[in-house]
């Protein structure tokens, strides 16, 4: 049987991912994880051994985030995430796609974004997600489904004609295509 402290140490990477998806700022995410771990240690006696420790910790982190958000009433921008958090250097086109994805993720409602990250990135089950976020399993599945469907629509260009993101992406893609036809590199798109 793993000790309480060992379980806390094992779950830290997943808590960091969840915190980063909530705060969209590395420094704030680290602070949030630290505060959540402090809360968990203070409430250690309330944890029932044999129950889902992961869901318990994720719920503490989420509740701490909500409490902090209520105190500050402000959010941070996804642009605060350093480029070094990506696994490898991306080509210019990959960078555009990642920026598109980042913009699309930031447009999702917070509950859908959180659910999507917890299931897709962290590999959490729908049951654990439901327990961590305090909703029904059907609601958790629905949030992930709606987030995936909306991201797919935004990323494939299946958007209303007046959607600003689609217009920007279409303009960038048209510029890249034009540069390729002229034999110019897309890497130097922003050099004048």
Q: Round the mean pLDDT to the nearest integer and report it.
A: 81
CATH topology: Butyryl-CoA Dehydrogenase, subunit A, domain 3
Second rung of CATH, namely the architecture? Up-down Bundle
- Tell me the number of helical segments per DSSP (H or I, 4 or more residues long): 8
Low-confidence stretches: none
Helix and strand composition category: mainly alpha
Termini Cα gap: 63 Å
Assembly state (oligomeric): single chain
Would you report the number of β strands?
Answer: 0
Q: What composes the largest sheet? A: none
Q: What is the gyration radius calculated from CA atoms?
A: 20 Å
Per CATH, the class reads: Mainly Alpha
Q: Please provide the ordered H/E string of secondary-structure elements.
A: HHHHHHHH
Give the name of the CATH superfamily.
Answer: PhyR, sigma-like (SL) domain
Organism: Asaia bogorensis NBRC 16594
InterPro entries: RNA_pol_sigma-70-like (IPR039425), RNA_pol_sigma-70_dom (IPR014284), RNA_pol_sigma70_r2 (IPR007627), RNA_pol_sigma70_r4_t2 (IPR013249), RNA_pol_sigma_r2 (IPR013325), RNA_pol_sigma_r3/r4-like (IPR013324), WH-like_DNA-bd_sf (IPR036388)
Family: Belongs to the sigma-70 factor family. ECF subfamily.
Keywords: Sigma factor, Transcription, Transcription regulation
């Amino acid at each position: 049987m793993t000790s309480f402290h060992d379980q806390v140490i094992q779950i830290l990477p997943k808590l960091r991912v969840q915190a980063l998806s909530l705060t969209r700022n590395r420094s704030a995410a680290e602070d949030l994880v630290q505060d959540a771990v402090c809360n968990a240690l203070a409430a250690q006696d309330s944890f029932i051994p044999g129950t889902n420790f992961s869901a318990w910790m994720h719920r503490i982190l989420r509740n701490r985030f909500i409490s902090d958000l209520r105190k500050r009433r402000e959010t941070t921008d996804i642009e605060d995430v350093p480029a070094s958090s990506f696994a490898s250097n991306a080509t210019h086109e990959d960078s555009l796609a990642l920026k598109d994805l980042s913009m699309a993720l930031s447009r999702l409602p917070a509950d859908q974004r959180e659910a999507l990250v917890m299931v897709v990135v962290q590999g959490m089950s729908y049951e654990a997600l439901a327990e961590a976020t305090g909703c029904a399993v059907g609601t958790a599945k629905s949030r992930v489904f709606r987030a995936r469907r909306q991201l797919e629509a935004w990323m494939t260009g299946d958007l209303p004609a007046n959607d600003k993101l689609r217009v920007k992406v279409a303009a960038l893609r048209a510029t890249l295509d034009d540069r390729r036809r002229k034999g110019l590199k897309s890497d130097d798109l922003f050099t004048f």
